[in-house]
Design goal:
single chain, 420 residues, Phosphorylase Kinase, domain 1, Transferase(Phosphotransferase), domain 1, five-stranded antiparallel β-sheet, 14 helices, 39% helix, kinase
Amino acid sequence: QFTNIEYLAKGGFSKIYKAVWEDGPITGWKSSNGSFRRRKREIVLKRFNNSENIDSSFLNELEIYIKIGGENFRIGHIFGVTQDSQTRDIMLVIEFVKDGDLHHFLLKHNEIDSTSKLIILRETAKLLGDIHKQKIIHRDLHSVNILINYMYNTRYGVFVKINDFGISRPANEWTDKEVYGVIPYIAPEILREEKFTTASDIYSFGMIMWEITSGQKPFSDRNHHDINLINDICNGIRPPIINGTPQPFIDLMIKCWENDPSKRPTADIIVKIIQKMIDKDMLKDKIELPTIKNTKIVTHPHAVFTSRPLSSMIRAASALQYTQLNYLSFAEYSTKETLIDIMNEKSKSNHNIHNIHNIHSIEQFDKTNQHPKMNLNSLLNNQESNDQDFDFCQSDNLNFENIYHNDNHSQKMFNIRQWI
């Protein structure tokens, strides 16, 4: 039934193809001969890797996705499910959206006007509001999951659809215990091992707002295998505001990417705020968004913008953050005995400390700490004696993990106390 099959892209857990469905979907009924009317059309085949043996949980999630897609025209329509005759992998038959995903659309049409950009955001927020009312959370919202149909001969004729509700994970590893996604779009509470909520989708929407102004994916200049990125996001680090972004837009974007999920607006409130911006634009009280520069975007070689399992990285980042904070708290204690008691107590509860292998000494710990408010040197009061004791630490190559667990000799521990 499928011809002209053309490979398009590879996702985290699937491959995407463009094809022609020769029979096409049912479009009506022929009363003359008592048969369905069909029409050939271009479609997308999404093949799930290693999906020949799937369980009922995956099928249940697919059923929900297909159901809400049939009820809401703003969701990428799924015509049905088929199976690869050779690999036996499951494939979704999805409508083809001619202008592709939002990220590549912005790169191709960097001259698009501000009102069209605002309409894209408004329609995306409308859809989020629709699914949130059904108690559905997307969980993996980013610019590649937003599809665009742009009507070139009409004024602001932009049609937006969203794909991949809850199915951006391996078909053969269907579990809610693992977090899947793209780190720069994931809300900080998820990176702190909390549960997904509708507010988590709103954070992702805030990142998409930034991408609309920049033409770049957030944190594309960072190494996405580095757990420090996770901790930076949890500590409130966000992409830099693009010059020329209007203040009402900035205010909404900052609200969407608030660290505290309870302070983020709902999708319905976002729609109303963006509509006011559009109305001002129509009345010539312009809300001008920055024009995306037609320059080559430099992306870090280890930036990853496909969905992948992240739970192990999140746990490691959490352990590192916990260890750094507790290490800094040593400055509050002035006696060797108190310091030993605190470290012994913490070592009982912190079972993740053994997973930290990239901090080998106090010197390296200080260098890896990128948060300016947490610079160790700023905590030191007596600079001359501190420098001397710090040299002592370097020469003895003290291991931070051992120090934390009180496994060093007492003389070395005493010098750590003196250094603090």
